[in-house]
Amino acid sequence: MIAIVTGEVLEQNEKELILDVSGIGYCIFTPPYKFTNGEKVTLYTQLVIKDDAHELYGFQSQEEKRLFKILIGVSGVGPRTALQMLTLYTLPDLVNIIKIGDSKAIALVPGIGKKTAEKVVIDLKDKVEGFAVSENKASSDLVEALLSLGYKDFQIRPIVGDIDAGLPIQKQITEALKLIQK
What we know:
By secondary structure, the protein is α+β, with helices and mostly antiparallel strands. About 40% of the residues lie in helices and about 20% in strands. Among the domains are: about 1-60, CATH 2.40.50.140; about 140-180, no CATH class.
């Protein structure tokens, strides 16, 4: 198992990056982190072995990796879907969504239907104890609105936590659009 990889970022896009480790380039699937090419980074990794591929999934914190491992333990949630969850929501927001049982917010993740979302909430409610929880709950209505406007999950994730969930939804959308345009 490959647990930690430290190297220099060669390339990256919203789903993966290539990390140069002593002359070997590792393709690692990650949430959309903002690294610069040439930056030295350390990722906590999970190796997933399939019939046709060995894939590395990398995270900036051990907490993200731990939640990823818990998510892929749910029947119907594969590594790509778990990564999508961690792409659409920050770790504290996702933990909060699971704790409060918001299956509607989980169902907004591409690849997850209503039944799987409910299963995630039921199966993981007790398993997410000990994780940090977001004080500012991400509005599933805000995420749904931005997705319906055509924005991608990697564009939404960085700004959702900056929006005051106490505002009316129209104001949340306006603030989110301003932040996305920056």
